[in-house]
Amino acid sequence: MPETDLSLLIQAARAAGDIATGFWGQSYEVWDKDDNAGPVTQADLQIDKMLKSTLMAQRPDYGWLSEETPDTSDRLTCDYCFIIDPLDGTRSFVAGERTWAHSLAIAKHGRIQTAVVYVPLLDLMYTADRDVGAFVNNDALRVSAAETITGARVITTRPAMSAEHWKNQKCPEFSRHFRPSLAYRMALVAQGRYDAMLTLRDSWEWDIAAGALLIEMAGGAVSDKYGTAIQFNAKWPKTRGIVAGAPAPHRDLIAALDPQ
């Protein structure tokens, strides 16, 4: 049995990467989820099955919340809960791109304690633990030193820049960038390669749980679009958007947003 939750998640993430890379670039089934929730593939489901079997065998008293497993209320009675996205960025995966990721986190009483974001085709293993710190491939993570949102590098979608989302109908003058995986977007912010990220759409916990701890442990700030701290393993596991980044860009984004 792995001695720590962090080593358990790292081992599981590498196993997920092995499965995913076996499918990537090959022929496999792809279908659309109900309610326009996006595509799902054989790889997503096989990884989810492996992760649940592996992780719950090692920590049988933990709860389970995953994008590809029907949710139950059992997890709400557990002190600890796995929060898992077996394959974050499925559209990118299907398109043959390389920036999809595996996102694994553990919450304790609603607060993320341990997290891994693994991008196998880029050989990037992002890890965070409240007792250890945050790293990428053993190099310490640190958010950028940006002192304002003006001119900052922000990962977001083009619709998020529409005037209706901002006070005085004015989006801050930042440089927009994009990555399809929410987990990888947050990892890049934790690494200091970008200054902030935001999504104004409601966000599932499994997309953001691991990335939230990476950014927090790297010295950044994370909240919903109203500036409210996020409580994980919630009864309804969806947040009101996500704004995360170095402290100053995060502050400026929250001040500028006019969330509806």
Structure notes:
The chain is α+β, with helices and mostly antiparallel strands and 260 residues long. The chain is built from 6 helices and 16 strands. It has helices at 5-23, 42-58, 90-94, 182-190, 205-217, 247-256, and strands spanning 30-32, 39-41, 63-66, 80-88, 101-108, 111-119, 124-129, 133-136, 139-140, 153-155, 175-177, 196-199, 203-204, 221-223, 238-239, 242-245. Strands 3-4-5-6-7-8-9 form a 7-stranded mixed beta sheet, with helices on both faces. It has a 5-stranded mixed beta sheet with strand order 11-10-12-16-14, with helices on both faces. Strand 6 and strand 7 (124-129) form a beta hairpin.
What is shown here, in short?
By secondary structure, the chain is an alpha+beta fold.
Q: Structural class, judged by helices and strands?
A: alpha+beta
**How far apart are the termini?**
47 Å
Write down the secondary-structure element order.
Answer: HEEHEEHEEEEEEEHEEHEEEH
Tell me the overall shape. Answer: globular
C-alpha Rg, in Å? 17 Å
Task: Report the sheet with the most strands, covering strand number, pairing sense and barrel closure.
Answer: 7 strands, mixed
- Spans with pLDDT under 50 lasting ≥5 residues? none
